[in-house]
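User: Can you predict the 3D structure for this chain?
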Amino acid sequence: MAETQRVTRRAMAFVLAGGRGSRLKELTDRRVKPAVHFGGKARIVDFALSNAMNSGIRKIAVATQYKAHSLIRHCHRGWNFFRAERNEFLDILPASQRVAGEHWYRGTADAVTQNIDIVDNYDVDYVIILAGDHIYKMDYEIMLCEHLDSGADVTVGCLTVPREEASAFGVMDVDDKGRILSFLEKPADPPAMPGHPDKALASMGIYVFSWPFLRDLLLRDAQDPDSSHDFGTDLIPELVRNGKAMSHRFDDSCVRTDGGPAYWKDVGTIDAFWSANIDLTDFTPDLDLWDTDWPIWTYSESTPPAKFIHNEKDRRGIALSSMVSGGCIISGTEIRNSLLFTKVHTNSYAILDHAVVLPHVTVQRHARLRNVVIDSRVVIPEGLVVGEDRQDDAKWFRVSEKGVTLITQDMLDRRAASL
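Assistant: Here is the predicted structure, written as C-alpha cells:
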C-alpha cells in the first residue's frame, strides 16, 4: 500500500471541463455542462474532482473555456481547501491564447498542450486525463497501478455496455489480455468483448499516461496540420496503431453501493439529466450520495434546515419519496418523487410530481408541475400547469423526446409577454 501511495503522490489529474454541453439546451445557456447542478447540492464536475481526491491525488488542474464563470466560482468556493505547503493544489486553467497564434483550445489534446509549461512545473510523473461531465465513482489508483504494471503507452478507461447499445460510443476492440487492437467511433457493428459476445467496451474519455511520454506526443501532434488535436480522434487511435494501448475496465475500479451495479451516467440530455436526478429518490438508489467512505465533495452553502408548514386539507407541506435540500420552505405544497435543490420556496396548494428543481426557485400558489426540470432562480407563476398537456407545454417550453419539460425564466417571460 505504501508503494501505491507514492504513485498517487507522483500523479496529477487534468480535468477537461470546457465543453459546451449543447444537448442540455437552455440549461447550458449560462453555464458550462460540468457546472450544471446535480443531486441536490453538487455540480457535475464534483464527481471527477472527488474521485481524484478520494483516490489520493492531490494535484488537480481544471481546463475551462465555454461560459466558465460559474464553474470557476464553484471551484474557488468549494475546492479551496488544498494547501500548497503540502504540495497539493487545484488550479483553474482558462483558455487564454497562451501560445502563438489566435487559437483558444482547439481540442481536448490541445487543452493540455497549451499548458505544458504549467504541468512541467507540477513535477509529476503521471497524468490522468479526465472528462469533467460524467456522474460516477471510480478509484483512479487502481487504473494507475494497472497502467504501470502493463508498461502501456496509454491506458484507456472503458465501460462494459450491452453490444446493441455500443454504437453510441467509441468502442474498443481488445484481445484477451486487454490490449486495444482497434478503436472504432460509433460503429454500426461493435466488436464484442473477449468471452462476452453480448458485451462491448466503450471509452469513458479517461486516459493514463506517463508525463514525459505524453509531453512528447502532444508536441508532435501540435505540429501536425491534419490533426484535430483531440485525444479520442487523433492521439488514442495513433497509439493503438503504432504503440501499446491497454484497456482498463471500469468494473474493476468503480466504487459500488453495497455490491450494486457499476454506476456511470452521461447526463448530457434533458431526459438523462432528469432521470439521473429522479433516480436518487428511489428507496435504494444505485448512486450512493450518503457514502462517507467515498464522499462527493462540493461547495456547502450555509443554510437552515428545510421547513415544511401547514397541515390542512389540500394544504399540507409534505414530501413523499423525495429529496429536499437545506434552505427549502415547503409551504402547503405536496412534493412527490422529486428532487429540490437549495433554497427552493413553494407555496400553498401547489403540486410537484417527478420534478427536478434547481436552486433558488420560487413556486407560487396552485401551480401543478409534473415531469419537469426547472432552471435556477425561476419564479413559477400562480396557477401554472405543466406536464398534463404536452402540446400546450411545447408552445412555451422545451419538451424532450420522452416528455420531460424544461422551464427557464426566459421561457416564462416570453409566455407572460404573449398572454
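The two ends are 66 Å apart (CA to CA). The longest strand covers residues 199-210.
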